[in-house]
Design goal:
The complex is a heterodimer of chains A (581) and B (165). By secondary structure, chain A is α/β, with parallel strands linked by helices. Chain A is 35% helix and 17% strand. The N and C termini of chain A lie far apart (57 Å). The N terminus of chain A is likely disordered. By secondary structure, chain B is of the alpha+beta class. Chain B is 30% helix and 41% strand. Chain B is built from five helices and nine strands. The longest helix of chain B has 13 residues. Chain B is elongated and about 55 Å long. The model of chain B has no long low-confidence stretch (mean pLDDT 94). Classes of the chains: A alpha/beta (581), B alpha+beta (165). The structure holds thiamine diphosphate. The site of thiamine diphosphate has 19 residues of chain A, from helix 17, helix 19 and helix 21.
């Protein structure tokens, strides 16, 4: 399960400042490598197998954040990575520590987030004996990592770490796991850090094929109803500016997938909105009618195609831009495939691209948006609507906060009612759909940006999956604003049971939950609560004016559903607009 | 259209690489008919030959997914050009004094050979392409096959395709 290719000729490596050639232990080596990679924060949790690493951390410059659960640590590292674009680093012990990372690793893999996960393992003499706290974590994470390593020799450690950071951050980013047995952590060897990575078998394509780009430019010139679909790949590539330029120059409206939300300003004239299952009418109409679909870094997920790939964008020529060749043709066969980094591809295209003949089309898309905007009705009993809370959060932050979500209805309402305008400002588990992600991710983002406004929005279900990290917010006085949209149930599941299981509400009742305000207080955090619109505005103002962490529980209408909705298996024209009609 | 495909994968000679490749096939729902691994022409690299079935799009996806593995250097779809493919089978067939001569007549045209003789059985060794081995097994089945062991296909492109490339 390991990759210990020929030992690097360490001695040939350069000797930067950090005492190269000095004899140190494996764990000291590890921490030095992290510093050389520019790592500032690591999130983790100690245990027997990583005691040597924690002992070295005691006197290291690295800032270690002790979370209360390894899943909290890895989601925090993930939030840190999504917010900054830099790799997140997490450390966990062998066995249960390592397996507690699994959900977080899969989450990062699905959304292409660069992570370096360091796990300890039992000494090699015990490997394979079912020793205390032994788990084959490289085996377990084989299908959910971009790559993983089991370190057999201390001499390989620096090379492996160098490679791990390189693999995690280049091409299509992803999580890389390094499993270090205890004897390697305690062994000693002279330290040399390789200057560069030599991986003959790994060469991601960054630059596009010019002929393919030319083909796209020609297709744009001919198109009458072009549309851009942008996904997480645009964010990963840091291509937000190029995308704006490209869209404006060509006059092509832009559809942002869930993962692409902060990749194009929600307030931009050309922004249509989110497509798919809970997307807006205009975006889905645009997909039904477009004659040229330019997909930039999105993977034609079944939440957008509804799995009906044959009927998807039937009238369109499809251009698919992706750094990962395997994405092209995986779900939809494109007319023009372009393999390359989104930023590079757009930068290549921009100087030559012409304005499309798309005025009528752009007007049409705007008209659709005006005809059928996202909307909800006021509760007749005057109860607080969850959509109103998200709107209010948007209005008071002007779309500039970093917002994290969990998974469920609240996630969709954030996607619908919050117009993101800052880059890397929407952090959500899109691919795996991991409940319990949002709050620890917000903590990670807040560590990265202590001065920015970070808001974590969760449901009452998801928040309880990692609420123990309230301790971190308290201990570090992180000014994160923790929002809970409490509908007393597992809302999204309730919605499906209502619509597709004949109102048979099986095991979704969370009425018997904790008192969230007291819970916050128990952790030494200010807790606030609101159940009317007026209260909501007041407590939210108070929350924004509070230095340090605040938890705000909004008691919202429990029966509210997310609309519009296209049921799985239906096509985009079979859209239910809402229960108001 | 469902078809058999033979894919050659050149990989770093590492522990665990076979697991990575096999795991990827399983994870993505690709069928493995057979898989063989062994040394390649270059030290430090192994060659895997995988036989799979599926339509063209499936094979294209398999090839692209293999390329994503960090230890994979080269992937070739051998069956898209001229290739040589061979498999080895060892077949233990029931044999009595009266059937032995008959069995010899059957295996002879296949250029198979008897590599072990026991009181009630013989072991036949045969190499060739899959269809040839299938055919021999069919002919031997009426006599009673006690044990059968096949290696799976190993393959290589014909020289002609090298010149073309
Ligand atoms: C770890 C995990 N378990 C289960 C699910 C399935 N699931 C998706 S949404 C949802 C309900 C979420 O309820 P809540 O957190 O209260 O948010 P709401 O939908 O009410 O906004 C569930 C259980 C999931 N996505 N993740």
């Amino acid at each position: 399960m390991s990759t210990d290719t020929a030992m690097v000729e360490n001695k040939k490596a350069s000797m930067p400042a950090m005492g190269m050639g000095e004899v140190v232990t494996g764990s000291e080596m590890l921490l030095r490598c992290l510093l050389l990679e520019g790592v500032e924060h690591v999130f983790g949790y100690p245990g027997g197998a990583v005691l040597p690493i924690y002992d070295s951390l005691y006197s290291s410059q690295l800032k270690h954040v002790l979370t209360r659960h390894e899943q909290g640590a890895i989601h925090a590292a993930d939030g840190y990575a999504r917010a900054t674009g830099k790799p997140g680093v997490v450390i966990a012990t062998s066995g249960p520590g390592a397996t507690n990372l699994v959900t977080g690793i899969a989450t990062a893999q699905m959304d292409s987030v660069p992570l370096v996960c360091i796990t300890g393992n039992v000494a090699q003499s015990l490997i394979g004996t079912d020793a205390f706290q032994e788990a084959n974590i490289t085996g377990i994470t084989l299908p959910i990592t971009k790559h993983n390593y089991f370190v057999r020799n201390i001499e390989d450690l620096p090379r492996i770490i160098k490679e791990a950071f390189h693999i995690a951050t280049t091409g299509r980013p992803g999580p890389v796991l390094i499993d270090i047995p205890k004897d390697v952590n305690t062994a000693k060897a002279p330290f040399y850090y390789p200057e560069s990575v030599k991986l003959r078998t790994y060469n991601p394509t960054v630059k596009p094929n010019y002929m393919q780009v030319d083909k796209m430019l020609k297709a744009i010139a001919k198109a009458k109803k072009p549309v851009i679909v942008t996904g997480g790949g645009t964010v990963t590539a840091g291509a937000e500016q190029e995308l704006i330029e490209f869209a404006e120059k060509t006059n092509i409206p832009v559809i942002t997938t869930l993962m692409g939300l902060a990749g194009f300003p929600g307030t931009h004239e050309l922004c249509i909105g989110m497509p798919g299952m809970h997307g807006c009418y205009a975006a889905n109409q645009a997909l039904l009618n477009t004659d040229l679909l330019i997909n930039i870094g999105a993977r034609f997920d079944d939440r957008i195609t509804m799995g009906r790939t044959k009927e998807f964008a039937q009238n369109a020529k499809i251009v698919h831009i992706d750094i990962d060749p395997a994405e092209i043709g995986k779900n939809i066969n494109p007319y023009i495939p372009i393999v390359g980094d989104a930023k590079t591809v757009l930068a290549t295209a921009i100087p030559k691209v012409q304005r499309a003949d798309s005025d009528e089309w752009v007007a049409q898309v705007k008209a659709w948006n005006q005809e059928q905007p996202y909307r909800y009705s006021k509760s007749p009993e005057g109860r607080l609507k969850p959509q109103r809370v998200v709107e209010m959060i948007y209005e008071t932050t002007a779309g500039n906060a970093i917002v994290t979500t969990d998974v469920g209805q609240h996630q969709m309402w954030v996607a619908q009612y919050y117009k993101f305008s800052a880059v890397r400002s929407f952090l959500s588990s899109g691919g795996l759909g991991t409940m319990g992600f949002g709050f620890p991710a917000a903590i990670g983002a807040q560590f990265a940006y202590p001065d920015r406004l970070v808001i974590s929005v969760s449901g009452d279900g998801g928040f309880q999956m990692n609420l123990q990290e309230l301790a971190i917010a308290a201990a570090h006085n992180l000014p994160v604003k923790i929002v809970i949209l409490n509908n007393n149930c597992l809302g999204m599941v309730r919605q499906w049971q209502e619509l597709f299981y004949d109102n048979r509400y099986s095991h979704i009742d969370l009425t018997e939950s904790v008192d969230f305000v007291k819970l916050a207080e128990a952790y030494g955090i200010k807790g606030l609560r609101a159940s009317t619109e007026e209260q909501a505005e007041n407590v939210w103002r108070e929350a924004l004016n509070t230095n340090g962490p605040v938890l705000v529980e909004f008691k919202v209408e429990p029966g509210e559903n997310v609309f519009p909705m296209v049921a799985a298996g239906n096509t985009l024209d079979q859209m239910v607009l809402g229960d108001e009609e | 259209m469902e078809q058999k495909h033979t894919i050659s994968v050149l990989v770093n000679d590492q522990p665990g690489v076979l697991t990575r490749v096999a795991n990827l096939m399983g994870q993505r729902g690709f069928n493995i008919d057979s898989i063989t691994v062994g040394q390649s022409e270059e030290k430090g690299l192994s060659r895997m030959i995988i036989v799979t079935s599926g339509d063209e799009a499936t094979v294209e996806q398999i090839v692209k997914q293999f390329h994503k593995l960090i230890d994979v250097l080269k992937v070739q779809q051998l069956s898209s050009g001229p290739m040589v493919a061979r498999e080895l089978a060892l077949i233990k067939v029931e044999a009595t004094a009266s059937t032995r001569a008959e069995l010899n007549l059957i295996i002879d045209p296949f250029r198979a050979s008897v590599v072990d003789v026991g009181p009630n059985s013989i072991v036949v060794q045969v190499t060739g392409d899959t269809q040839k081995i299938d055919a021999l097994i069919e002919l031997l089945t009426p006599y009673g096959i006690k044990e059968l062991s096949r290696t799976g296909v190993t393959a290589i492109s014909r020289s002609a395709s090298l010149v073309k490339a």
